[in-house]
Amino acid sequence: MPEEKNENQVKSEDEKPEITNSKLAVPQAAIQKLAYLVKLIPHELSAPAQSVLFILIIAAILLLGFGVYMGWSKNPIHCLIAFIATLLLLFVAMFYFLGMKQIAQCKSSAENRKRRFVKNERLRIQIHEEEKKAAQELTQKGRIAWTRDVIALPIQDDERRREIIGELEDIRNGAFSWLNKRHTDIQTSQIRVNIFLAKYEEAGKGVVCMLRMPEYLRIGMSGHTDEEIAFRPGEGATGMAFVEHTGGVAIFNENAGTWDDRYTLTEYQKRKIHKQLRWIITYPLKNRDGEAMAVLNLDCLGLVVNEDELHRLKADLQPKISHLETKLNGYYDKVKISITVEPAFKS
Length: 347
Fold this sequence. Notes:
Helix 1 (2-39) crosses helix 3, helix 2 (43-70) packs antiparallel against helix 3 and helix 4 packs antiparallel against helix 7 (307-331). The chain is rod-shaped. The protein is 56% helix and 16% strand. It is α+β, with helices and mostly antiparallel strands and 347 residues long.
């Protein structure tokens, strides 16, 4: 059968490496056994043993040379004895030094393994101590790193919503009246008012919250490029007011043609911001714990105003902002957003 013939051929081919390996293994095994015998020699006698072996080899070579010099025909026995003795000593020396080489390789391998083990053990201990220290520091500092009570979303009460929109319109009109006394060419359409709320729907994806303007809480922004803009806490003047609980004034740098770097705006946000926006006044709307639960922004398109004027305008509008803040705290439920940090180290 052809199939059986192929199987036999495969078997015979498989057996060949085993025979070859077994033949190659014989001298290796012999060297290992010889190395074991050489190891039996005490360490303090290894150097003298090598010296004696070297002297005997020299003596045997001299004896062989002397026998050849004296003449094979005159005394062949001397030459034969010297030749055999030299061969024996050469074989002994060869196997001795092969055994020493094997021992040296074994010692080198063992030392390398020992060094790697010591290095890995030290690294493991170092990592263990660093984790333990970090866990202890974390425990000492406390488990809660950040928490905030914000307005629960969505806001569905239409009557109260309209009341809040009315408050925003009142703030806008107050800003227009104040600015119009000093800049008579200003138009109401240039002034915009909005409230950024903390959107926490993506908290399950690792995004604690995003600050966004609901459509009904932005006045004078319809159709503008930045009507859908959003900020993370700490981004832009809005994000800074949310994190730091303090309002401020942000002014477009006319000379540089951009906003200050401290606002850490992304390139996408810079493109989205209205090209005519010249300044922003931010007000953190605080909860009863004194922390920002939302941010109100008042800004203006096209009108350049100096910083001192903007701070006076900000102070003049503060009573209206405080009134709105009180209503927000009384009208709407709150939810708590927290970042909890707990030690994961286990001793």
